[in-house]
Amino acid sequence: MGTSSSVHHSRRACLRDLAQAGLGWGLGAGCSGLVAAPWPRVQLDRPQTAAFRAWFVALVADQVRRPSPRWVHRDCAGLVRFAVNEAFKPHDARWRRAMGWPADRPQPPEVDLRPDQVQLQKPWLTADGQSSAYASALALAQLNTRFVGKSRTQALPGDLLFYDQGDEQHLMVWTGRAVAYHTGAPPSPHDNGLRWQRWERLQSWPDTRWRPSEANPNFAGLFRLAFLADAS
């Protein structure tokens, strides 16, 4: 019990140090020494970033309304991975049919990856320094994002809220209008596990561990996908 508590404290301390130091990305998987990894390998430019954000948020919203059968790993990190993966795809008639995307629904501009950016179709850095189609919530926050802050005023659509609850880590997505997330519960005929909550509602959430506030030690903060261009 003491060892587990020590590990949780160390991880939270590392995430706090990351925030205070203003490090952008690449926190080592063990948090030891805050050693930056060579990441991201490539970034989107600003127009691509705007297009990606629009697609990512639209896809997250679509899953909350009606999860796609193409989405296999139904948890918080799986929601992020799925929406990122689908945002990078060409959104042609075949894709719309597979996703059940209505033909008359407006679509954002395409991201249009350049040849040197196609590696982003397998975008996640893992603890061993390899790129992968899979990353856990912890790996997404530690290795594949940059810290933004803890205030809603710093958030842009598509930014991630990261929570460290000791034995479990959790991600939520800021869509610009609300926070979307997966509860982690197995889907059932009457509950797909997906939720919308207004930021203000979360700030007064009965279980204080889920409040996105400076006073909550479980809220590590807002994190931005590392391959996105800077906002300024």
How would you portray this structure in words?
By secondary structure, the protein is α+β, with helices and mostly antiparallel strands. It has one domain. Helices cover 31% and strands 15% of the residues. The protein has helices at 2-21, 46-65, 76-87, 93-99, 137-143, 199-203; strands at 124-125, 131-132, 145-149, 160-164, 169-174, 179-182, 194-197, 219-225. It has a 6-stranded antiparallel β-sheet with strand order 3-8-4-5-6-7. Strand 5 (169-174) and strand 6 form a beta hairpin. Helix 2 packs across helix 3 (76-87). The longest helix has 20 residues, at 2-21. The model is unreliable at 1-9 and 19-38 (pLDDT under 50).
Oligomer: single chain
**Low confidence ranges:** 1-9, 19-38
| Helix vs. strand class | alpha+beta
Strands across the major sheet, in which order?
3-8-4-5-6-7
Number of helices: 6
Q: Provide the β-strand percentage band.
A: 15-25%
Helix-strand pattern: HHHHEEHEEEEEHE
Mean pLDDT: 84
Count of DSSP strands = 8
Helix content: 25-40%
Q: Distance N terminus to C terminus?
A: 45 Å
Most strands sheet: 6 strands, antiparallel
CA-based gyration radius? 17 Å
- Large-scale geometry: globular
- Count of the separate structural domains: 1
